[in-house]
Specification:
Arc Repressor Mutant, subunit A, BirA Bifunctional Protein, domain 2, 3 domains, 7-stranded mixed β-sheet, 5-stranded antiparallel β-sheet, 9 helices
Length: 321
């Protein structure tokens, strides 16, 4: 951790009180000049810091920056030892985390970025990830069977929904992994993992989350009718670290309670798929049916016109009414 991050962490924990330059220098084994330079760097980053003669420094406001030490301070008390890392521009947070996971990175590793140049969506699709959104991936090493993969994606969608609700934002969940506001997409989730074929269990699981927070003036024309952002729809401008922390807290609890399926009531109650006729593909054939329920592991139950039902566990289901 850089000196400026150590000082930011200390000021965050000061509860709005002043910390003297001498005390900070002693705590971190550096000179008061080094402390002053770090304070100036934090100010350049956008932190609002009050300086007072004979009193020291006081943190007034943290900007909307993905500062690992700040995010970690928001996650204190979690059961998971979340370890955030920040990379300003990246091809894909999922790709980077897969490299780290294969090299033995611990559960709780989180990669955050301002912008993805090769963001990934489900079924090989590209996820548009311009600067200004919240893009992050987290690493889990759960003791879960492969069959729970869809449940994990669904409980992640529930966690994002609950986190947004805590900021006064109402969203809906489209099976299995997207969140919508006003009928357009504001969040996508991609779960990827490595599996132990002998034990039929997950070796590691990576969950990537991308959320559109502010308008994108360069949004491709073909996406304008299906994609939106939180600020445009609600007028609310969220602080990214605070939103990421809220999501991780909710997700941690849902994962811990996965055998009890505690995420499912939220997932069902806020679905924009249930109760609608949907188009989907089964064995290469496009079909239409009414979405009537979810199973405990978040598979979609559909009902055909003749009253027969089928459970869909892969692909997508597009509402058509």
């Amino acid at each position: 951790m850089q000196l400026k991050e150590q000082i930011l962490h200390e000021l965050l924990h000061a509860g709005g009180e002043y910390r003297s330059g001498a005390a900070l220098a002693k705590a971190f084994g550096c000179s008061r000049t080094a402390v002053w330079k770090s304070i100036e760097q934090l100010k350049s980053d956008g932190c609002e810091i009050s300086a007072s003669t004979n009193r020291g420094y006081r943190l007034v406001r943290v900007p909307d920056l993905l500062i690992p030490s700040y995010l970690k301070s928001l996650l204190e008390g979690c059961q998971t030892d979340w370890q955030p890392q920040y990379i300003p521009v990246i091809d894909s947070t999922n790709n980077r985390l897969k490299e780290l996971a294969a090299a033995g990175a611990p559960a709780g590793t989180v990669i955050l970025s301002d912008e993805q140049t090769g963001g990934k969506g489900r079924l090989g699709k590209h996820f548009h990830s311009p600067k200004g959104g919240l893009y992050f991936s987290l690493l889990l090493r759960p003791d879960l069977p492969v069959s729970d993969m869809m449940s994990v994606t669904a409980c992640t969608a529930s966690a994002v929904h609950q986190a947004l609700s805590s900021f006064g934002i109402k969203s809906q969940i489209k099976w299995v992994n997207d969140l919508f506001i006003g009928g357009r997409k504001i969040c996508g989730i991609l779960s990827e993992g490595a599996f132990n074929a002998e034990l039929l269990s997950m070796d590691y699981l990576i969950i990537g989350i991308g959320i559109n927070l502010i308008p994108d003036p360069d949004l491709p024309e073909e996406l304008r009718s299906i994609v939106t952002d939180i600020c445009s729809e609600t007028g609310i401008r969220l602080q990214r670290s605070e939103l990421a922390a809220a999501i991780l807290r909710h997700l941690e609890q849902y994962i811990a309670d996965l055998p009890q399926h505690t995420y499912l009531p939220v997932y069902k109650a806020n679905s924009c798929t249930l109760g609608h006729h949907v188009e989907f593909t089964v064995n290469g054939t496009q079909r239409t049916a009414l979405a009537v329920d979810f199973t405990e592991d978040a598979a979609l139950v559909v009902e055909y016109a003749d009253g027969t039902q089928e459970t869909i566990r892969s692909g997508t289901a597009r509402p058509i009414d």
